[in-house]
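User: Predict the complex with S-adenosylmethionine.
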Amino acid sequence: MSQLPDGFWHDNGVAVYDYPPQHQPKYQLLGWMPVEEFRSLKLSIAISGKMLTPIVVDEDGEIIDGHHRDLAFVQLTNEGIKIERPVPHILKGLSEEEKRHFALRANMVRRQITRQKRREIIAEELRRSPDLANQWIAEISGCDGKTVAEVRKELESRSEIPTVATFRRRDGKTCPAKVIVPRTARQAEDVRKHLKVIGTDVSTCSPKMIKFLADEKARNEAAASLPPITLKDIDIRNCWFQDLDLAPESVHAIITDIPWEQDFTESGQLAELAAMADRVLVPGGFLVTYSGQLYLDVVMAEFCKKLKWGWQLCSSWEGEASIIHHRQVVNKHLPILVFSKGEWKKRRKWVDRLPPTTKDKSLYRDQRPLPEVDYLVEKFSDPGDLVCDPMLGSGSTAISCFRLNRRFVGSEMKDDIFKRAMARLHKEVRNDEPQSDHAQQKEI
Ligand SMILES: C[S@@+](CC[C@H](N)C(=O)[O-])C[C@H]1O[C@@H](n2cnc3c(N)ncnc32)[C@H](O)[C@@H]1O
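Assistant: Here is the predicted structure with S-adenosylmethionine placed in the model:
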């Protein structure tokens, strides 16, 4: 084998150098693949002596699909290795948008893409063309329309995209977004006020949702104005919990609040959380989670595959109840489930009915009462322990850990919610936050 320019030989005899290239080709929308993946691709082309799939170009010769194959071909040819290459496939008469979509569709199915990256790509397409129907973007990005709708709502709440009145469909037709007409003059006035905050005059969702979006925007703006803080022992990250790199058996307790949606249970995330708990918890460590009731059976079954069932606490509140239409129930309490990794380790006594609280949703619609979270942290971990909340929302568990002298690591996948958690922690560290909700815990 001859020596390669600035390169190195791999065990399998294929070299990779000058990778990833500095330039970003126009239709290379997902970035260059990791070097190891490129090495495997180059190796397989070198071994077979031919490029099996032709690259796809437009009429100007700009590559739309096949940048990596093309680069491998160029490098191997420069190295004196003869590679058969099929004639490039030329796509004629496509618009810029159609070329982009072709490139995305081809690569989204082929490449290994994290959920976070997929959402970023969806967001990018929505920023470019907010009027594309959700289903169309879903097809391009290889996910479902619900995910696109979710990302759209987030972007709308941050005013990154306008709320559109008409959607473009893939078949060339347009369809009007659902316009909801307020029922009373008072409601109409509120809707106008909230739409102004959001920065649009199209009302495509319910007055309640419009108020929610306006509140979200106000909260995001308040949180975004604060600089980030770093606290040695309170580590909060803006990522999916699946991407948290925690060492095996390093966490003493996972104290969390899982999303109560069918989507979360059915998408396999619940199973991933159970597997993560099994891996990162110390023997005898606890997983404590708030849970909705509708899918409680699935939640219990999934966690019990990896952990041991422990007990249930009851969280209840004064004031407004939640109406669960599926069961015609006026709901005023929530289960908090406790599992242990392996045998239950004896602890100091604790009480399983928490004193009723008043709802505090000032930071997040799913915010849990701090006195309750304090209680869970205090009873299921010890000072100095490492506590994890993989879905930290507004960061209630992080705040409790900071107050109660536990080390903390947690993740939140949504950028804006993460910023709110960061801002809340910031405030806490400066000792600005009212401490009154702390008092209730002592009564338990
Ligand atoms: C029920 S909320 C938590 C609320 C929190 N207990 C509080 O007091 O604010 C669940 C959170 O998990 C986040 N989430 C969902 N799936 C996630 C994942 N795979 N990784 C990280 N965060 C996730 C959601 O964005 C949401 O903010």
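Residues 42 and 72 are 5 Å apart (CA to CA).
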